[in-house]
Amino acid sequence: MAFHLGRFSDLYALLEGFHFSNRSHPLLQQLWLRAHYLEAECQRGRPLGAVGKYRIRRKFPLPRTIWDGEETSYCFKEKSRSVLWEWYYCKPYPSPREKRALAAATGLTATQVSNWFKNRRQRDRAAHGAAYPKAYPFSDNGRSPPGSPSPLFSCSQPPLLSHMGGGQL
Q1: Global pTM?
Q2: How far is C-alpha 3 from the geometric centre of its chain's CA atoms?
């Protein structure tokens, strides 16, 4: 109600003052950000662009009452990204079934998982040219692109997804 009435300070106080269930976090996060965006747009007298919204998000981070505190990178949580990296290290071309299992294990959609693998392969090809996907000549072990996280497992087979709530493949 405070949002629709434009009483943003009341909204912020409410969102910062009470702990909400994780199920409510996405909606409340959206309210928090939209309220800050609207305030900034009113002050500036023009709509915010992508950079303006980014600056607002940095200036007014989500309160812990509506956020689990896990860092995100490109909208993916670090835990999800590390699972994708582990799989990519062993198997840069997962099957559709494996992509669905990865999606279930990471909380992403199958499309997001597919796009992550496609983009990762494309970036590696661009960075390393014709050597991809056979080997990465500039990496320590010849199997992963430079700068990628060190694998936490032996790569005879991709890791099982049971540690993240997904099933075995």
Answers
A1: 0.47
A2: 27
pLDDT tens digits along 74-123: 567 788 888 999 999 989 999 999 999 999 988 888 999 999 999 999 98
What separation in angstroms does the CA of 54 have from each of 33, 48, 64?
10, 10, 19
The tokens describing 70, both together, are 């896990």
Last residue in a domain, options 32, 54, 69: 69
Same domain, 63 and 88: no
18 located within any domain = yes
Same-domain pairing of 49 and 87:
no
Q: 65 with 81, same domain? A: no
